[in-house]
Design goal:
Order of helices and strands: HEEEHEEEHHHEEHHHHHH
Strand content: 5-15%
Oligomer: single chain
Number of domains: 2
Mean pLDDT: 94
Structural class: alpha+beta
CATH architecture of the largest domain: Alpha-Beta Complex
Distance between the termini: 54 Å
Largest sheet: 6 strands, antiparallel
CATH superfamily of the largest domain: Aminoglycoside phosphotransferase (APH), C-terminal lobe
Low-confidence stretches: none
Number of strands: 8
Radius of gyration: 21 Å
């Protein structure tokens, strides 16, 4: 890889480091991240490149931008690899970095993005994407049911799926009702979001915002996924941490009732369950499968905790459901 980078970019890194989920290197005051783009098409990368250039123009100093190779191409292909390199200034992450306020500011700037987005657009598509994912897993479930499996993981999947099918259908219905009953405000316009925003998305030791993580969507996507990740770490929610994150965000960009309802619909959709099942059946090694099995056991053991978290959510964040005319789900366990 070091030799390839020298030949293709004219840079000679002293070593390749692990940067989050990627590889990368430092050179002078610049952090370079090597992005695997095997599953990305050129049009989507062009959109993400436009977004990163726009946000950098808006003064976001943490944004990484795509670096062209010596041939002026954004994608470098070798016999074994297809990758891009993103670069940004080396920004050490300070203890006083406020993630809620930074995310709200990021969303505010992203709302101003003036170009049409097609490949990276997810706005208004949650229902169809969730239905597609559910249909695919239901078909797979029927197939495994007929096969009469004897492995513990498969038995747990067959037993648990009907419950998560019901939860997904509730999430879809809650989303549909929100779009029928409530009106979006200006804060509900599409913005640059992340596929899955979490504590480590913007780095740990250094701050960087990688365009490869981005989609164009409603801002509640990022807020919901951040809260979900925090909850799933221990299957408890630190009330003070939750309040701080949301109040930091709302100081910059207050949430509408439409935003709160979309956020809740997204928490209802059990993406963590889907990812464990999909992960188990997509890996080959027994060691990795065992890890997914343990994850599934965790998810199932805490299903009632998650229901309680959903039941108490609006109360926990200090939202009056009657004042905002927000419906509550009566079937959730107390």
């Amino acid at each position: 890889m070091i030799q390839t980078i020298y030949e293709q970019y004219g840079l000679r890194p002293s070593e390749v480091l692990t940067i989050g989920q990627c590889k990368g290197f430092q050179y002078r005051d610049i952090l370079y991240t090597i992005i695997d783009v095997n599953q990305r098409d050129q049009e989507e990368l062009n959109e993400l490149h436009q977004m990163s250039q726009f946000l950098m123009g808006q003064g976001d100093r943490y944004v990484a931008t795509f670096m062209p190779n010596l041939q002026g191409e954004m994608i470098t292909e070798t016999e074994t690899e297809k990758f891009s390199i993103c670069r940004c200034l080396l920004n050490p992450r300070h203890a006083d970095f406020v993630v809620g306020a930074e995310l709200a500011t990021f969303h505010q700037k992203g709302r101003l993005f003036p170009y049409e987005v097609e490949q990276a657009n997810r706005l208004g598509q949650w229902k169809s994407l969730w239905e597609k994912r559910l249909d695919q897993m239901e078909q797979f479930w029927y197939g495994r049911l007929r096969a009469l499996p004897n492995q513990e993981m498969e038995k747990r999947f067959l037993e648990s799926f009907p419950y998560y099918l019901g939860l997904t259908e509730n999430a879809i219905q809650y989303l549909v009702d929100t779009e029928i009953d409530d009106l979006p405000r200006s804060v509900d316009s599409a913005t640059i979001c992340h596929h899955r925003f979490g504590k480590h998305t913007w780095g740990d030791e250094f701050l960087y915002k990688l365009p490869i993580d981005w989609v164009f969507d409603h801002p509640s996507r990022d807020i919901a996924e951040y809260i979900r990740e925090q909850y799933l770490l221990t299957y408890t929610m630190d009330q003070q941490q939750l309040h701080e994150f949301l109040s930091e965000y709302e100081k910059v960009s207050p949430l509408s009732s439409f935003s709160w309802r979309l956020l809740y619909a997204r928490l209802l959709f059990p993406v963590h369950y889907f990812e464990v099942i999909e992960g188990y059946y997509s890996v080959q090694s027994e060691e990795q499968r065992q890890l997914y099995y343990q994850k599934l056991e965790d998810v199932l053991a805490h299903s009632s905790h998650y229901e309680h978290f959903l039941k108490q959510f609006y109360q926990s964040v200090g939202i009056s459901t009657s004042r905002y005319h927000i419906p509550e789900l009566t079937w959730l366990r107390t």
